[in-house]
Design brief:
This protein is α+β, with helices and mostly antiparallel strands and 158 residues long. Helices cover 37% and strands 37% of the residues. The two termini are 29 Å apart.
């Protein structure tokens, strides 16, 4: 398994596909979630600036099995996005390794804080966020991506 942070043709589309298919299978999210991911990733790719943005991709012999991104904001904060570890790559510390790479990048770029948006159903990811020092700062239950779900915001001051 290796982690790289150079974006290659096809990477953006594949990460969108992984999110759409995996979250449909594991959390019953509908096609509108994939559209949400596609919209955000498209904008990230179009405006990518290596001084404030980074995308890490974990690969094994089968291809991409994990991702995480940092999207720098104008106010010296950063948004952590598109954090995913495919089922076949879980349980090996990959999630922790990807999260550490993202937070190290934020510290090196001297961001003041990092935030992320997630769903309450993603318990494993929430444990990793909390272990890294993130705190849940908001939650809202509403209809989104085909069902009633609770969205959560986590923040970390660096």
């Amino acid at each position: 398994m290796q982690i790289r942070n150079n974006i290659q043709p096809g990477d953006i589309g594949y990460i969108i596909y992984l999110h759409g298919s995996l979250y449909a299978r594991e959390y019953n999210l509908d096609h509108t979630f994939e559209g949400y991911v596609a919209s955000g990733m498209g904008e990230f790719a179009r405006t990518f600036d290596q001084r404030k943005d980074c995308l890490w991709l974990a690969e094994d012999d089968e291809g991409i099995v994990g991702s995480i991104a940092i999207a720098g904001q104008a106010d010296l904060s950063a948004q952590l996005r598109w954090f995913l570890v495919a089922p076949q790559a879980r349980g090996r510390g990959l999630g922790s390794e990807l999260l550490k790479a993202a937070l190290d990048f934020c510290r090196a770029r001297e961001f003041k804080s990092v935030f992320l948006l997630t769903l309450s159903d993603l318990k494993g990811a929430a444990r990793l966020y909390q272990q890294a020092g993130f705190q849940r700062t908001e939650h809202k239950t509403h209809e989104i991506w085909g069902a009633i779900r609770t969205e959560e915001r986590y923040d970390l001051t660096l």
